[in-house]
TrEMBL record:
InterPro entries: Cro/C1-type_HTH, Lambda_DNA-bd_dom_sf
Protein name as annotated: Helix-turn-helix domain protein
Signal peptide range: none
A GO term, aspect molecular function: DNA binding
A Pfam entry, by short name: HTH_31
Span of domain HTH cro/C1-type: 91-148
Organism listed in the record: Roseiflexus castenholzii (strain DSM 13941 / HLO8)
Superkingdom of source: Bacteria
């Protein structure tokens, strides 16, 4: 495992690229780094983009501390999967292995279907995903929270449309990566879905 200075240096390089006007996705940047550190680096960069510089001492709020704990757990899960040599599965792989559709899993979790689909596309910042949802996903997919964390960091599947567009040389606008709270709001939840996650969303904002 790389030491902390490597991750800080990588975060600074990524920020410099963005500040210089080069639009590069998090996945594209991480793909240029050594394979053995990509998942852990992605978790680190997710945290850095969410909360700011990590190399400056700061007093974290309870919300920030919770986010830091989530990132550490995510990075640990990714590292365990890396050293174990197990197959790398994303959330879509885990869902399909249980023969569940996106709609069925979303109903079980009382989440908007659009939100779950966005999670599977890797367009929700992992560091903002509530621990409660990770636990609920683990229960629904009959696996462990560590496996879910690793799956959230794994590269998402490439859609058929994306493959066809790539073959045709068509460049589509990249979908923004947003926080869980923003993705939830964007998904136009029903009253039942909002009620099911209201307390969790409220805690995340404090």
């Amino acid at each position: 495992m790389k030491d902390r200075s490597y991750f800080i240096e990588a975060a600074l390089r990524y920020e410099e690229l963005l500040e210089s006007g080069q639009i590069i996705s998090l996945d594209a940047f991480v793909a240029q780094e050594p394979p053995e550190v990509r998942e852990e680096l992605r978790a680190f960069l997710e945290f850095n983009l969410t909360l700011g510089e990590l190399d400056e001492p700061a007093v974290l709020s309870p919300t920030e501390e919770a986010a830091a704990d989530r990132v550490m757990a995510l990075a640990g899960a990714a590292w365990e999967r890396e050293v174990s040599g197990g197959p790398l599965q994303n959330l879509t792989d885990l869902r399909k292995a249980r023969h569940m559709t996106v709609g069925r899993l979303a109903r079980h979790l009382k989440l908007p279907v659009d939100l779950l689909a966005r999670l599977e596309r890797g367009k929700v910042r992992v560091a903002t995903i509530p621990e409660r949802l990770i636990e609920r996903l683990a229960e629904a997919l009959q696996t462990t929270s560590s496996v879910i964390r690793a799956a959230l960091l794994a590269p998402p599947p490439i859609s058929a449309n994306a493959r066809l567009n790539a073959e045709d040389g068509i460049v589509e606008p990249e979908e923004m990566v947003v926080s869980f709270a923003q993705a939830f709001a964007d998904s136009a939840p029903t009253e039942e879905e909002y009620a099911a996650w209201a307390d969790t969303l409220s805690s995340a904002r404090r």
